[in-house]
Amino acid sequence: MNFKHLPLALICTTATLFVGCADSENNDKKVNDGATMNIRLLETTDLHANMLSFNYFSDKSDDKVGLVRTAALIRAARAEVENSVLVDNGDLIQGSPLGDYMAKIHQLGAGEVHPIYKAMNTLDYDVANLGNHEFNFGLPFLQEAINDANFPYISANVYKFDGDANSANDEPLVKPYVILDKTFKDTEGNSHSIKVGFIGFVPPQIMQWDKANLEGKVIAKDIVEMANLYVPKMKEEGADIIVAIPHSGLEAGDTQPMAENASYYLSKVPNIDAIMFGHAHADFPGARYANLEDKGVNIEKGTLNGVAAVMPGFWGNNLGVIDLSLQYKDKHWQVVDSQSQLKPIYRTDENKQTVALVENDAQVEAAVMQEHNATREWVNEPFAKITAPVYSYFALVNDDPSIQIVTDAQAWYTQKIVQGTELEGLPILSAGAPFRAGRGGSEDFTSIPVGDIAYRNVADLYIYPNVLKVLKLTGSEVKEWLEMSAGQFNQINPQLNDMQSLINSDFPSYNFDVLDGITYQIDVTQPARYNAKGEKVSDGQRIVNLRYNNQPIDLNAAFLVATNNYRASGGGNFPNINASKIVVDSPNENRQVVAEFIEFQSTQNAGQGLDPSADMNWSFAPVPNVDITFISANSEKTVGYSEQFPHITPTGQVNADGFAIYRIDLTQP
């Protein structure tokens, strides 16, 4: 009889007729009551196609990322113990240019092994779970990619769309769970057959995030509901321990239906012994979750309501490890203790320099080198054109093309993603900040000339791997956002004849948000309303002439504001800005959105290119007859660009840090 295509449980049942299967009853006869066993669970998650320690945007090595480094930790962690299993928790095939190259340029052919699986197949993974980004390139590509994995894929809450309302006949897209027979040794050195069950989940929000790829093809169900359905079945089929692998973050509280971040809720589902989660690009155990102790979250042990749990960051920067202690009693193995930990691939020294903790794994490196080299070649090739230069030399004092191109891209993406939802029709604003405006030194500015633009140039425009989020705010909250941003400027005394510096050097430039979609002026003669920490320090009103559609903004009206996960989650301590205001929790990186926007607009313009010029939607309120200065790059290029703006002139002076000093005339708005 050929058992190859039968479910594991059926194989076991059928095989028992012939040779006997090592099930729980057989184990009961062989295992002494009180026997103990240790099992190590290992997890990678959110690799996002970062196979090597390499940044394709800067075209340089990067010791902070890459499965090639995590692989060395995997092999070392296995060597330390008798018993181990290895899982991947998704968001695997998309995220770095290597993933884009394979899906969009190379276009994986039938029977061809994706380089990611070439690499992973050298590491003997036991099982993998689908993440939300697995669906970004469509179902056909996903199926073609994963069919050469030497390990099964699972997901318990994604089903094929059948068009009827009968949930009883729904067919899973992949196996909801697997139960693997593992031969492990107890602490006395005796071997036993242990049934390890794995069940996976993905955020049901995939139906919104990847609507174009999934609508009419699959449906997504509630994570906890599916856990309550399948976990009892897994126990009935003889699973000794059950490991949940939710591609889902951690939010503690009462269970919410169709929750995106449901890992905490799974800890309350009976018979789940360990939770290996991801999606949030965060570390657990970690200090970020210390405030959840009263919710049953223990960051010392790494448990959620007593259930062992781990989340190992992103891009391979950590290996997740759970060490389970089992004891045999009452005729079955039971988890009696656990310890979770993260094993990092690098550390930061006292000089804030990155120190690699492991070397490249030779097998992983060799497996992907051909496609890596092809990706490097592609990422440096032009993919679009721009018809005006993009630079950030004056981003702190003038509306700026390096911000404009980002805010335009975010608004474009938001308009698409809210179509067909209750948010469609709301005004869309978009927030962007100057990331490279001299904070890293006198050469730390963006400068991309007219003409061809390569994919790696996008790193100049958006240097952080942030994810796009959309907030729903009132007009009043939008104004307070801008008041906080206006802390970028020193207060100018209009009666003072001495030279006055415009820029508040204590205020981070990445917190100087420009909001496009509205027009406004900044009155720098007023005191800042908020300091750099987001603390209200005055009743100053710097934001004046705030208008939407050429009319004074309605402070009670609702607006959508596209931004990034840092700002949306409270980064920068902006007033009224926190995760509770998020209405679109997009899985897409801002940087990827910018690249797609540039390519789309360049194509739409008959290949002539995108015009990234700033729309000058903000300016300073007039301050006549005052000598005001700021600093920028000391270069002929900067001087040349300044000639476009009559109110900006070089002084010919250079400060001690190598910055050129410029004068700005605020006589006119």
Describe this structure in words.
- The protein is an alpha/beta fold.
- It has two domains: 22-375, Metallo-dependent phosphatases (Purple Acid Phosphatase, chain A, domain 2); 381-618, Alpha-Beta Complex (5'-nucleotidase,  domain 2), CATH 3.90.780.10.
- Helices cover 23% and strands 26% of the residues.
- The chain has 17 helices and 37 strands.
- Strands 8, 9, 11, 12, 13, 14, 15 and 16 form an eight-stranded mixed β-sheet that branches. It has a six-stranded mixed β-sheet with strand order 6-5-4-1-17-18. The protein has a five-stranded mixed β-sheet with strand order 28-23-32-26-33.
- Helix 4 packs across helix 11 and helix 12 (401-417) crosses helix 16 (590-604).
- The model is unreliable at 1-29 (pLDDT under 50).
Number of helices: 17
Strand content: 25-35%
Question: What percent of residues adopt helix (DSSP H or I)?
Answer: 10-25%
Rounded mean pLDDT is 91
Write the CATH fold name of the largest domain: Purple Acid Phosphatase, chain A, domain 2
Q: What's the domain count?
A: 2
- Describe the biggest sheet? 8 strands, mixed
Radius of gyration: 28 Å
Uncertain spans, ≥5 residues at pLDDT below 50? 1-29
Number of beta-strand segments: 37
Distance between the termini: 84 Å
CATH homologous superfamily assignment of the largest domain: Metallo-dependent phosphatases
Task: Decide which structural class fits the backbone.
Answer: alpha/beta
Q: What is the correct CATH architecture of the largest domain?
A: 4-Layer Sandwich
Shape: elongated
